[in-house]
Amino acid sequence: MNPTVGAVVVTYRPDLVLTVPLLRALADQCAHVVVVDNGSPQDAREGLAAVCAEVGAELLPLGHNAGIARAQNLGTDRARALGADLVLFSDQDSLPAPDMVSRLLDGWARAASRGVRVGAVGPVSSDTRSTTEQMVYVARRWGPRRARPEEAHDGLVEAAFLIASGCLIDVAALDEVGGMNEAWFIDHVDLEWGLRARRAGLRLYAVPDARLDHELGDRLTKLPGRAQEVHVHSPVRTYYLARNTVLLIRSGLMTPAWRLGYAVWLAKYVAFNALLAAPRRRRIALMARGLRDGVTGRTGPLA
After folding, report:
1. CA 158 to CA 138: how far, in whole Å?
2. Global pTM?
3. Closest CA relative to residue 123, chosen from 95, 144, 145, 150
4. pLDDT tens for each residue of 51-87
5. Domains of the chain: residue spans and CATH
6. In this protein, which residues make up the domain named Glycosyltransferase 2-like (predicted)?
């Protein structure tokens, strides 16, 4: 019997020019589409409701920004109530290839045939603003790093974690591992869940022939001497990334080498945003608050 796939899309002030083709693509590929809106203004919500009605998606308006993790968990509960065996997460600024879901299911079957416990599979995500972005991360000594082409075996790459958008998760894995960590609100939520899943003995795989266009961050920029572009987030997101990286380091989910690797990454991230990304003062203040809250263990939304 083929598994039933339910898509869960989280929106926040969506650009309907991007969201309409996303919802149409998911409706063509999934048995159910649940859209969880995180407190968009009324006009945006009304436009989103019209699109959902057109494509046959179900809209769950939250009325406030509850965070991506809470929205994903609520959407998952609804997708399961509709009969989903597998849940496909999507951000509002993604666009799956017309055959992405079928290729993910094929990849899942290949992985399961190896006799391993598969927790989730995901596509190769490419940033539409870049010619070099291939967002598949494998485990290295100092933490997750971009995969190399030769690391694909039988059309699969075993991943350290999977980016949430495009990730296809077994509801049984969610029962075993738990849902997304709502206390973290946004940022590193997918990474934290992936670490919990792998600690439980589940395997995560990227499927290279499953494709997804996805924009990560507000913009990309190039730095001298660095081939890979840098993702630049809004000032508020620097708070969450700083805080949740500290929480991640303190979580007990990583090896000492990974903790050190993330500490180095965090130092570079803070330096870049403090020195090269405007508005510098606001970013510095928010990152300082995030670092403090990470150390003290404060979670939830930025007050």
Report:
1. 7
2. 0.93
3. 95
4. 999 999 999 999 899 999 999 999 999 999 999 999 9
5. 5-214 (3.90.550.10), 219-296 (no CATH)
6. 22-177
